[in-house]
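step: validate -> pass
step: tokenize input -> pass
step: predict -> running
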Amino acid sequence: MALADDLLEQAKFLSIREVGRGRPRQASLRRAVSTAYYAVFHLLGVEAASQASPARPRGLRDRIQRALAHETMRQAARAFQATSLPDYVASFVHQPISPEIVGIAKNFVLLQEARHKADYDLAEPFDRTTVQGLVNNAEEVFLLWNKVRETDEARVFLAALMFWKLWSK
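step: predict -> pass
step: emit ->
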């Protein structure tokens, strides 16, 4: 099982663990949110690195995946979510952008913002229902990705996740 799948499974586990009075703990809920985001981040990262690199030499894909930047990915996802792509990207995709890619992009941005709150905003309490909804959003990304992963649109989306900031130059 791939790391992304393991992380999604862990996020689900953390979102339902600990029942009873005073439960669940904020630590478990916050880790579930963070882990759900990283499941999606790694899913898309592995796909992007696989697209950009051959399998050999060994380790090159891992190095490319490690170079992915959260902020660059967020900017690209926001553009695909809003379906307002600049001409230098729009020329590679059919308009309108598929609902699957829009859903992936929307959930990526949502999960990244939730992860920031979970990891850094201790004044923001989390409840089980909200967290399970976020974990469901991550699971939805996996399902949507499986529907579109072999399309040209998905290939452009992955390239945008890697090179968004560089493309505007």
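step: describe -> The chain is about 75% helix and 0% strand.
step: cleanup -> pass
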